[in-house]
Design goal:
The complex is a heterodimer of chains A (132) and B (321). By secondary structure, chain A is α+β, with helices and mostly antiparallel strands. Chain A contains two helices and ten strands. Chain A has two domains: 83 residues, ATP Synthase, domain 1; 43 residues. In chain A, the strands form two sheets. A five-stranded mixed beta sheet of chain A has the order 2-1-9-8-5, with no helix packed on it. Chain A has a five-stranded antiparallel beta sheet with strand order 4-3-6-7-10. The relative contact order of chain A is 0.17. A five-stranded mixed beta sheet of chain B has the order 3-2-1-4-5, with helices on both faces. The chains are: A alpha+beta (132), B alpha/beta (321). At the A-B interface, strand 1, strand 2, strand 5 and strand 9 of A face helix 2, strand 6 and helix 8 of B.
Chain lengths: 132, 321
């Protein structure tokens, strides 16, 4: 039996297909979801969703944060922002990282500091995702 | 507005003809002015048509996320364990004395009954709530609604967003959502309802009320769920496992749901606005056309009358000789 996997971002539906397994970057560690997984809802950390078919990764999708809802037959990922890893541009992200680090350096309030820190973590994870 | 001036214009030559015939020059001027009005309205119609197409696309693109979000939150609320601390954004604070109404309108007019429909609905809602002894506050989105409601309810307006820009992004909705949630947490209101134009088609927009806080399960999402349930037994309403914990998940999901619903209302409203403007401008262009035909007919008749009169004068002059 196959798992119905959907990845949705606020402004579009990125992925909706039947797959064998998806490895999800949960906030307390990665977990794999197969058909008949116990129902759960997990918050996500920035990272890559790896989609498996016939034992091989067929698609890698980057999410910045969000939630994953698992029912027995479906996995729905509600991402705050999501990208196909192959479509990410390394130079562009390196620029974003530099900007985020600069923002972190000049941040003086607690919320802006937290936001800048989050941005640094997201872009750094993105770069790792591209390399691997 | 344009169609009104157009109507007034068309009746005036008839009035004139009773007392004093308008000259050919008057006709030419009036025809020219109707023509330039028509140019403007038909250009606006074309612009709205192309904007409408883009707005429709973004409504369609945002629909999956909003629907899934609503379904997840519905599942969550029905499956909550009784030991969890309540999340007041979802369940409400057990009071319904103070209502916050969020009317969503456009920044500009010339779009038929688009803005006035939302304002009328809002006024009706305020009146109903006041009669039953509730308190009401307003959170206006869009310039037109704010201006129209300010006249009667200026003391009720707690916040307003006048310019949300031409492109609705998620971050715009997020800022509004956060503002509403923080007002709620500060105890400003108990129930929050959005009033907006839901997009049905280019010619029909439906004024809709949607309750944001406390969360209200929608029938369509319920129907959707039972449909899926009948297909797969394993989808039965099981209790979820939560990571990291039920409270943390709810604390982030509940405000996010508010934002998502606002995002959706904004997109629907923008699509409706362009649809309404397109229809209004189409009507205006058509009535400008009618008026031009009438004026041209009257112009030709007057011209013919002048020629006939001159001929008669010449002939009777020649006969007199």
């Amino acid at each position: 039996m196959m798992l119905q996997f959907e990845l949705v971002a606020p402004e579009r539906l990125l992925f909706s297909e039947e797959v064998e397994m998806v490895v999800v970057p949960g906030c307390e560690g990665d977990f794999g979801v197969l058909f008949n997984h116990a129902p759960m809802i997990s918050a996500l950390r920035p990272g890559v969703l790896s989609v498996y078919r016939n034992g091989r990764v067929v698609e890698r999708l980057f999410v910045t944060s969000g939630f994953a809802e698992v029912t027995g037959t479906t996995l729905t990922v509600l991402a705050d922002e999501a990208f196909v890893v192959d479509s990410l541009n390394r130079v562009e992200i390196e620029k974003q990282l530099a900007r985020a680090k600069e923002a972190l350096r000049v941040a003086d309030t607690q919320p802006s500091r937290a936001e800048a820190e989050r941005q640094v973590i997201v872009t750094e994870t993105m770069l790792t995702a591209i390399r691997t | 507005m344009l169609s009104l001036t157009a109507l007034r214009g068309s009746s005036s030559p008839n009035h004139h003809s009773e007392s004093h015939m308008p000259s050919l020059k008057d006709f030419r001027q009036r025809i020219a002015s109707v023509k330039s009005t028509k140019k403007i309205t038909s250009a606006m119609k074309v612009v709205s048509a192309s904007k409408l197409r883009r707005a429709q696309e973004s409504v369609a693109a945002a629909r999956p996320y909003a629907e899934r979000m609503e379904r997840v939150v519905s599942n969550l609320t029905t499956g909550l364990s009784p030991y969890t601390r309540e999340n007041i954004l979802l369940t409400g604070n057990r009071r319904a004395d103070h209502h916050l109404i969020v009317p969503v309108t456009a920044n500009r007019g010339l779009c038929g009954a688009f803005n006035s429909a939302v304002v009328r609905e809002t006024r009706g809602l305020i009146a109903d709530l006041m009669v039953s002894g509730k308190q009401v506050s307003l959170f206006c989105i869009g310039y037109k609604g704010h201006v129209l409601l300010k006249k009667d309810y200026s003391e009720k307006i707690v916040y307003f967003v006048e310019n949300i820009g031409t492109k609705i992004t998620f971050s715009v909705a997020d800022a509004i959502g956060r503002r509403i949630v923080s007002l709620f947490e500060a105890g400003t209101f108990d129930v929050c309802t959005v009033v907006f134009n839901r997009f049905q088609s280019a010619i029909s927009q439906v004024v809709t009320r949607k309750q944001l806080i406390p969360f209200q399960m929608v029938e369509e999402s319920l129907a959707h769920k039972t449909h899926e349930l009948s297909g797969t037994a394993s989808r039965a309403r099981a209790l979820y496992e939560y990571e990291p914990s039920e409270e943390v998940i709810l604390e982030t999901l509940a405000p996010r749901n508010v934002t998502v619903q606002i995002f959706r209302a904004l997109l629907e409203s923008v699509a409706s606005e362009h649809g309404a403007r397109m229809t209004a401008m189409d009507n205006a262009t058509r009535s400008a056309n009618d008026m031009m035909n009438n004026l041209t007919l009257a112009y030709n008749r007057t011209r013919q009358a002048c020629i006939t009169k001159e001929l008669i004068e010449i002939i009777s002059g020649a006969e007199a000789l």
